[in-house]
## 1
Amino acid sequence: MARRGTVGALLTSGLVAMIAIGGAGGYGVGLLTTTDQSAAATGTAAAPLGGPGSSSPTPTATPSPTPPRKVTYDDSPALKADDLKYKTRSFTVKNVVKSAVSVRVPWNWDFTQPDPPTTGRFTDPTHKRWLRLEAGFTIRRPPAESMQVRIGELNRLPADQSLNILSQDVEGNAATLAYTYVPPKEQSPEGVLRYVVVRWVADDSGNCAVEMSSTGLPQDKEALLAVLDRAADSVRREDSPLTAGGTSRFGQRP
């Protein structure tokens, strides 16, 4: 089993306590919530169909489910764990709080961030593998719970993304989820199958402090897990307020 890392989550003494709103967990997306309820659940009666004094409902076409896309496979040589050399990299993310993050990653993987900088991403020279890290969110729930939130999100993906959950594991201070899927057409017009392994790592409180995911091709499985293990073993998070005036509740995450 992969080794589990520890996280030093050091919050600045002046940091105002925050009440978490919303949920989190997403692979680059926020928590999706289901608000629809049945009539029985809400206690409201369903309208009669075709009864006396009422008109018959107009027939509507039933939408056809979206069929899975044709999956293609990138047969590039597999990434080799033994070929990877690591160095410590540092960056800052901003979400509910500002988190200074340090982590050991492959030395020649390029660093990028979105705007606003809610995550950090290290991408290999071929642009076919990457490691994404997320911090700055409220430390509020254990890794196992964050993983279940993610699974719920994934299960709502369209059928044409061919999701296949391979494994889920909780051990020590971390939860790990592995799956394959086909990215949306705008991200992968060819429909190349991707392998993803996500890990939620807790701090001393037992709650998730860092979310990280290692993505590549199915043949990269062992190397992607090695990259994730090294990152989980070495990651550190140190928080401070976004501004001198306090903190923001923007974008709740894991």
Note: The two ends are 23 Å apart (CA to CA).
## 2
Amino acid sequence: MSIPVIIPTDPTLPTVTVPTSIGDIILCLDFEALAEAEAALIKSGHEDVNLLQSLSMNFPVFRVRMFFAIAARRFQPELNYDEACKLVSLQNIGIIADGILAVWQASTPPVVEGDEAVKNPSVPSDDSAASNAGSGSSPQPEAVSASGGTNFAG
């Protein structure tokens, strides 16, 4: 199975590339991606949706799969939710979880208190993601870079 990829063109969007059974997938998880995913979930009948809050909680397998599907949509719009979830496996869940958190952190501005920038408290630490996703022995995702485009059609 080959999924068409939209080539990133917006240098302000952070991306990370993660390996899957069908090849590398480019992830981009930003506020716009969360908003589009929430709107699609509400439209399909889910009423109490708060994806931003879900990012600040533990990162069990179902959340890694969910956020992988959301983050993959920007550059692989042909990849549907169920197909995306099936690409998360025991072999790559650690690197995918690390990639999701890295790209989210890169897209989130620091919280500013007085003159000092402080790490955003809504983003889980790398340690909590690693312990919850089992990423201790996984390779690191490619460095976060920049990229663009969006479609969260169901």
Note: The chain has one domain: 13-147.
## 3
Amino acid sequence: MSKPLGYYTNYTPGEDTLLASLQEEYGATFEKITVREKLVILTALASHMGCQLEGDCRAEIFALAKQITDAGQSHTRRTGNSHTLGSRCNQRWNRASTLTHLSADVARRRR
């Protein structure tokens, strides 16, 4: 990210907010985290934002997302790559995705 968080948000320096703590911990441009970590954050944000939208996704889109996930797992098995990072990421993603969807359901019920 070439510009600081405040460029993309309504963050005002000196505020006691999540954005302030993110900037303090990871740097104003997220320079203190890896590309993989940035992608995990981006995935979580995208999932959260998607859950906040009205309506639902078509079943074919969920099927496509599953195909993408399955293809990654299949590639790991086929190549014999013994590192388990892919499966760990999938487990974490599934857990985070489930929690995000559950919190979105609770928020919808409260409306």
Note: The longest helix spans residues 85-110.
